[in-house]
């Protein structure tokens, strides 16, 4: 609940409106830890808020808004559906195309890249939650 309130506080501080539907989606993101799909969020809402019926499109729009205000990342991790992740613990992934193994990367891995993109191009890169595909050490042998 603390996390939910702190996120909502941040949004309000930016002058954005938090409607009931937005609040419910943020709550779902807080309670469903890790990577979540629209389907996961929908199932959560159906379970916790039986009177609310948010369509996939509505949930998708709210997630796009959360992405815009830099609270959520949307990533293709090679699964059927895009996954969404709260940006409370920035991290990235190495994903093996052969075995499907996933290795977590610290956000600091990209500090140098961010710095260079800024120096060379004046570009402020937003690397929120990156999936890098390839082959793991084990499969490459
Ligand atoms: Zn992740
Ligand atoms: Zn592998």
Task: Describe the overall structure.
The chain has helices at residues 2-13, 20-31, 38-48, 56-68, 111-121, 137-140; strands at residues 72-75, 83-86, 91-96, 102-106, 131-134. It is an alpha+beta fold and 141 residues long. It folds into two domains: 2-85, Orthogonal Bundle (Arc Repressor Mutant, subunit A); 91-140, Ferric-uptake regulator, C-terminal dimerisarion domain (Dna Ligase, domain 1, 2-Layer Sandwich), CATH 3.30.1490.190. It has a three-stranded mixed β-sheet, with no helix packed on it. It has a two-stranded antiparallel ribbon with strand order 1-2. Helix 1 crosses helix 2 (20-31). 14% of the residues are buried. One zinc ion (ZN) binds next to strand 3.
> CATH superfamily of the largest domain, please?
Winged helix-like DNA-binding domain superfamily/Winged helix DNA-binding domain
What overall geometry do the principal axes of the alpha carbons give?
Answer: globular
Instruction: Report the top-level CATH class of the largest domain.
Output: Mainly Alpha
Q: Briefly note the structural class of the backbone.
A: alpha+beta
**Kindly, what is the distance between the CA atoms of the first and last residues, rounded to a whole number of angstroms?**
46 Å
Q: What is the rounded Rg?
A: 17 Å
Q: How many strands? A: 5
Strand order within the widest beta sheet: 4-3-5
Beta fraction = 15-25%
Number of helices: 6
Question: Secondary-structure element order, as H and E?
Answer: HHHHEEEEHEH
